[in-house]
Target: LacI family transcriptional regulator
Amino acid sequence: MVTIGDVAREAGVSRSTASYALSGKRSISEEVRHRVEEAVRTLGYSPNAGARALATARTRTIGLLAQFYDDEFAPAMMQYIQGVSNVARDLGYDILLVTESDGRSALRRLTSTRMVDGIVLLNVAEHDERLPVLRAAAQPGALVGRPADCAGVDVFDLDFEEAGRQMVDHLYDLGHRQLLLVSQPEHVVERGGAYVWRLQNAAVEQARVRGIRLDTAFAPARQPEVGRAVGELLQAHPGVTGLLVNNEAAAAALPTVMHERGLTVPRDLSVIGRYSDEFARTFSLPYSAIESAPDRLGGMAVRALVRRIEGQTGHDDPHIVHYVSPELVDRGSTAAPRRRT
Amino acid sequence: MVTIGDVAREAGVSRSTASYALSGKRSISEEVRHRVEEAVRTLGYSPNAGARALATARTRTIGLLAQFYDDEFAPAMMQYIQGVSNVARDLGYDILLVTESDGRSALRRLTSTRMVDGIVLLNVAEHDERLPVLRAAAQPGALVGRPADCAGVDVFDLDFEEAGRQMVDHLYDLGHRQLLLVSQPEHVVERGGAYVWRLQNAAVEQARVRGIRLDTAFAPARQPEVGRAVGELLQAHPGVTGLLVNNEAAAAALPTVMHERGLTVPRDLSVIGRYSDEFARTFSLPYSAIESAPDRLGGMAVRALVRRIEGQTGHDDPHIVHYVSPELVDRGSTAAPRRRT
DNA sequence: CTGAAAGCGCTTACAG
DNA sequence: CTGAAAGCGCTTACAG
Model:
């Protein structure tokens, strides 16, 4: 292994000079800098990450904690990871990806051993058990998803309340008066997936404000159960003209369900979902949807995190709680209802 | 930050004794070991990863290089990553996930700075440009996917030739005499996705051996283009009674295509794919398929890699090239053909 | 069974 | 503008 000592010898300077020549942290004569760079090239030197981490107390690595729950739809997760990963790289950081089920011990391991300079948490629950660990850690943290208590971390999330209102109003404005909202499985809510009821509560309230009817239901997150469940829901709610889908698996199953029941969108039913454009493409979903912007949210979280790591955000600067405003991507799956209820 | 020095002082022993007490690398009196463990607990000590890496020349981290190509189906990738990640954790390793498009420079960065003890490569191409870098590195490497030259690395892949033969024979045995194989987009092949033509060549050859007709076609990897393409293919091949699908996106699009054309499986068409069971569930695919076993392959790669890292495999021990035998998961989508050609 | 010391490969005040 | 030295927090031969 070639070390900075080898480089220094080859260039005929001291190790400190070699180090400074490479970091640029103090002025170096043009000639020496050149000799050092030359030596680096001929020897094929690159600094040892562990040694540098030890000396600087920085690893240039970010811990990314993601969990793949059986009742959450895996393809939807992937995009958050990609968003985080891409932006991190742009900022010069690598990603330590942890997917183990015991997030608390994983988080403790990464932070207490100083493997990482900061933490990004995905699948954040209302009362996330990883949060106390994260707050106790020396490293800063950024979350995608909003917990009940946002103290001590930067938080980024879609504005699910606004999303719920927007979905209701969009259909209301078209003339719909009887709606059905299909959410993630109840189990997600119980685990603390607060966004589910955040969207739902806001939708229910908005329906009340508008004076229209909105029924709500949970549906499984796995195929093929979800398809069957959605079919049964449509059957049980014959008067519904507008369907809101806050459940990726249900959205993915919907084309088949509609086919089977001989229904056409938006002629027989207006549909509006909540998922990303990438997700829509992957599953060929022809439904208008509130864009969930996973890559954008992941990227924002990393950027805020790196700002804290690098001290551009003061240690006492207030933490951010940022809501991304929902945007409706129109794919033509909504129209005025054919029949009035 | 609490160091091993603090632990030693608290326990009233030397730093080396504290270290040995924790590592168990030499015998320690029961009493001292107890005092050290007590000190660790009261101080909340955990070793600094960078310092340990520097002293031991081991990071207990594995680099995982994955690329998300536009023309490969992202949900299919995810499972390899999960397989690698889960097994790595079981073996006590963390995963540094790299998804950047320039795999060569990423690989160089990870290996030359000694951030990782070994490398797992996904999306391996026939002439993968990352391989020369990997061979030149000090760390061992394991691949999921077989390149033309397997020297210097451990290789794990599905036996795509056997898969092709098996798919043909399965339909042949049922009485089919006119088949169509839909593969990944030609672009994947051009980039070096050799498994595509490996399966195809073997299928073509097997059809020749059996004396039956097998047409081949490429299809896009994105929705909705792939659905349209598959529909047109079925139209252009009216005599076909058996469809082989080596293209995840095409498989995912198929239910809709069949619906649109009013075709029933297996009454009007027998279908056999090549994808994982998890993938089948995610997309509700009712088609029998050769299991692509992504988690198993990923896990095998990590296990072999760790064996090399930890020196259980000698440096000169021959490298492994392991083919997983294809297994057909029967979902009832094949039957004897209704009409003879 | 235990301790004092060297060394892993960097960075960065301190001195000139 | 440059060098000698200390220090980051570990592990592990060396000595007893």
The two ends of chain B are 77 Å apart (CA to CA). Residues 1, 3-5, 15-16, 19-20, 23, 25-26, 47-48, 50-56 of chain B lie near DNA strand D (CB under 10 Å from a C1'). The mean pLDDT of chain B is 92.
